Amino acid sequence: MSETIKHGWLDNVFFAALVVLAFGVSTYVCFNFFIRGRSVSTPNLVGRSVENAKGICQELGVNLVVDTDHRRNSDKIATGNVVWQNRTAGATNLVKRGTDIHVELSAGPLVLPVPDLNGQSARTALLRLSQQNLKLGSVARVESAMQQGIMSEEPPKGTVVAAQTAVSLLVGEQPPPLPYVMPDLIDRALDTARPALESRGLIVSNVKFESYPGIADGIIIRQFPLRGAPVSGRDPITVVVSRQAEGGIIEGPAALVPTNGPTPIPTTTQ
Questions:
Q1: 23 and 99 housed in the same domain
Q2: What is the dihedral of CA 191, 197, 202, 207, to 10 degrees?
Q3: 82, 137, 241, 261 — which has fewest CB within 10 A?
Q4: Residue 259 reports pLDDT greater than 70
């Protein structure tokens, strides 16, 4: 009895194995004759000319569709050749015969004109260059009283260059003001001292009035910077001027007016 059961179990296993084998063989046959027989491997058309790509597609029984409305820039693919296709190429990527393969053609390397940056700051130039897919090269600076900002660029403006080309700049900057030795303003009249200072680019920015017995109105009684200190047009000058009624009135720089009295002459440092 046990031997009968054992033989029956083996027969069932053998029968199941035959069924699985038959299913696998039939699947393989159907795939090769009914599916694979009607499909082809997707060709790699990238880099080929349109005529070459058409010939390959005709041999495989697929249709080449060229997008005439769009082109793509490429540094590697020659202008007019296929640069992109909508289906991945390869022997394992099958397409049915009669399938359309869409392609786009190369427009060659991306070329751009160098913008006109004359008179702009280096910061503005950097922004404009990055917006146009260019980059900033070396920057040379030179003192120029006539022109501030960018004076020249290399390559020159309007030159057609490839993307990410470096553009070098020559930037003009305002020269620093002349340095002076601060003169002694004490006991001098503000109306004569101030125009003399401002005619040399030195700015009297703060004026405070203070009562001082025995000193006539309008005479400078204190100053900053002190006599002998280095000073330039970037340094504010503060003076305290005598007046009978004391007050904290602050005045801005006065307009330059001609004077007939003696004026302090600042000394330029060497």
A1: yes
A2: -20
A3: 261
A4: no
